[in-house]
Design a protein that fits this description.
Radius of gyration: 12 Å
Mean pLDDT: 90
Order of helices and strands: EHEHEEH
Number of helices: 3
Number of strands: 4
Strand content: 15-25%
Low-confidence stretches: none
Distance between the termini: 24 Å
Structural class: alpha+beta
Largest sheet: 4 strands, mixed
Length: about 80
């Protein structure tokens, strides 16, 4: 699902979608942290990250794609 060398944007979803996406099951860090630093030191440059509320979650490709469809639908 992820292409080597491709950078994926940080998606932002509303708190109301957190349970639907199951974000509580994924590793996370506070939004005041450095996204580039977390990718560099822990998750890797191909990490799929979603911001919801005050936290940023490292999710699977399936959850990332579902979040993209929610974001597209809301626009």
């Amino acid at each position: 699902m992820t292409d080597s060398g491709k950078t994926y944007p940080l998606l932002r979803v509303r708190k109301e979608f957190a349970a639907k996406l199951g974000l509580g099951n994924f590793p996370n860090f506070h939004a005041s942290g450095s996204v580039s630093g977390m990718k560099k030191q822990y998750y890797g440059k191909d990490a799929l990250l979603i911001r919801c509320g005050s936290y940023i979650y490292n999710v699977t490709p399936e959850v990332y794609e579902e979040a993209k469809s929610i974001v597209r639908f809301r626009r």
